[in-house]
Amino acid sequence: MMTSVDTELIRVLGDPLRLRIVTLLARETLCTTHLVEETGAKQTNLSNHLRVLRKAGVVETEPCGRFTYYKLRPDVIAQLAGQFADLAESARTAAENKRACP
Fold first, then answer.
1. What is the C-alpha separation between 34 and 39, in angstroms, rounded?
2. What pLDDT digit, counting tens, does each position of 9-46 carry?
3. What is the pLDDT of residues 43-62, one digit of tens each?
């Protein structure tokens, strides 16, 4: 079984601050103000990272008055986890598929 992992999503989640945001949003829905408090990042920097996460489909927004709340899309994370699970299963059988040297 050959599988590929969504490299764009890996790149998006490879940034430490974006991964921290995703980790926080896995626990609760938060607004930008909460995320600034939790991460210590500047609001403009945080907004740029949230834009990248939205564009990648990892988070979605929920307007609430003058605030915007962000929540994690668990289906996207589950899909990526499934891709890694497939990759791990493929690696388990890789020892049996040893290619001979010419």
1. 9
2. 999 999 999 999 999 999 999 999 999 999 999 999 99
3. 999 999 999 999 999 999 99
Report the distance separating Cα 42 and Cα 35, nearest Å. Answer: 10
Cβ proximity of 56 and 69 under 8 Å: no
- CA–CA gap between residue 98 and residue 51 (Å, rounded): 44
Q: Is the pTM of this model over 0.70?
A: yes
Name the residue type at position 64. Answer: C
